């Protein structure tokens, strides 16, 4: 059937009925049936497998890059009405209990901040957070990543300059019974590297830890092209700034990489990002914000990490230029 063909509302209602507990009750099924029927069909086919490890074949991602956004509209964005599906699967507190066994974010160090960051990330917002060391930072990106992996078979890419930290976080998740994270770095032998690449390609990994230098690898680029990417998490974000104590030139390639990857996937907006740093002076924070304003025209700023701004939301060019610490 050609794109743009009309569909009766009853057909959209039938899809909602069949997938009642698998998609948001208020997903724009009718609009998707009219505007992106092929992408919708592939997205529903993936959902119907009931297997969070299933991913779109690479050729589907290349031939119909819009399929990722259709899947996100079906089950990746919580509706304002709060339907049963969204309350059950896109609620940070419920996910915290399911994945990590905590009843409340108050059980986590810096819990109020962590809870706010998780909710903002689940909502698809971009974040810049100054978080103290040992404050539960990892959980604030691991939890949204696991949710995106479970519901959308999506991958969260964590960029860090610390290879030992990558391994520690993968091992800690394994110790918690969560085998959904891998790292690809120079410390791996060829067999370990091939296994990690296979886990990313086949969908069994929801979190990938890499160094900023890895983004220049054609292997990594092709790997990320073949997966739906839910978010880029950038640790040690002070490395963007020449004012920071550990400036790394390779960090300056990250924004361009995310921009080009987003365009290749036909995204209306760049892939969301979360930036974390333990300490950052005013000029360092401003450098980070200006960098992403220049490349992606978005960032959310919470300068001290001691609270979550009640107005946390996606901000535009004007907001970025006018806001101050």
What do these coordinates show?
By secondary structure, this protein is α/β, with parallel strands linked by helices. It folds into 2 domains: 9-83, no CATH class; 91-322, Rossmann fold, CATH 3.40.50. The protein has helices at residues 9-18, 29-35, 37-48, 58-63, 67-75, 84-89, 92-100, 111-122, 137-152, 163-175, 190-202, 218-225, 254-264, 282-295, 317-322; strands at residues 127-130, 155-159, 181-183, 207-210, 229-234, 273-277, 301-302. The protein has a 7-stranded parallel sheet with strand order 3-4-2-5-6-1-7, with helices on both faces. Helix 2 (29-35) packs across helix 3 and helix 8 (111-122) runs parallel beside helix 9. The longest helix is centred in the middle third of the chain and has 16 residues, at 137-152. The chain starts with 8 loop residues before the first helix and ends with a helix. The relative contact order is 0.12. The model is unreliable at 1-6 and 299-325 (pLDDT under 50).
């Amino acid at each position: 059937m050609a794109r743009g063909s009309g569909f009766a509302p009853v057909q959209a209602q039938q899809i909602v009925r069949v997938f009642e507990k698998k998609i948001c009750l208020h997903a724009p099924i009718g609009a998707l049936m009219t505007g992106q029927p092929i992408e919708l069909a592939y997205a529903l086919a993936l959902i119907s497998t009931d297997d969070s490890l299933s991913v779109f074949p690479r050729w589907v991602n290349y031939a119909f890059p819009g399929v990722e956004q259709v899947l996100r509209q079906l089950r990746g964005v919580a509706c304002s009405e709060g339907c049963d599906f969204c309350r059950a699967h896109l609620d940070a507190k419920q996910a915290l209990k399911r994945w990590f066994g905590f009843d409340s974010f108050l059980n986590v160090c810096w819990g109020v901040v962590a809870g706010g960051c998780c909710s903002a990330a689940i909502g698809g917002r971009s974040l810049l957070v100054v978080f103290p060391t040992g404050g539960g930072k990892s959980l604030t990106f691991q939890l949204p990543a696991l949710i995106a992996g479970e519901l959308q078979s999506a991958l969260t890419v964590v960029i860090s300059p610390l290879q030992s930290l990558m391994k520690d976080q993968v091992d800690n998740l394994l110790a918690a019974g969560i085998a959904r994270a891998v790292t690809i770095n120079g410390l791996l032998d060829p067999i370990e590297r091939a296994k990690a690449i296979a886990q990313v390609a086949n969908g069994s990994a929801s979190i990938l830890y890499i160094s900023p230098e890895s983004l220049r690898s054609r292997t990594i680029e092709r790997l990320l092209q073949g997966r739906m990417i839910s978010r880029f998490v950038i640790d040690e974000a002070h490395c963007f700034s020449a004012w920071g104590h550990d400036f790394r030139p390779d960090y300056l390639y990250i924004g361009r990489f995310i921009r080009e990857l987003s365009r290749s996937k036909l995204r209306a907006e760049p892939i969301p990002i979360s930036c974390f740093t333990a300490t950052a002076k005013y000029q360092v924070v401003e450098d980070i914000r200006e960098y992403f304003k220049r490349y992606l025209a978005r960032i959310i700023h919470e300068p001290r990490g001691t609270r979550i701004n009640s107005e946390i939301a996606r901000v535009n060019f004007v907001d970025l230029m006018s806001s101050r610490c």
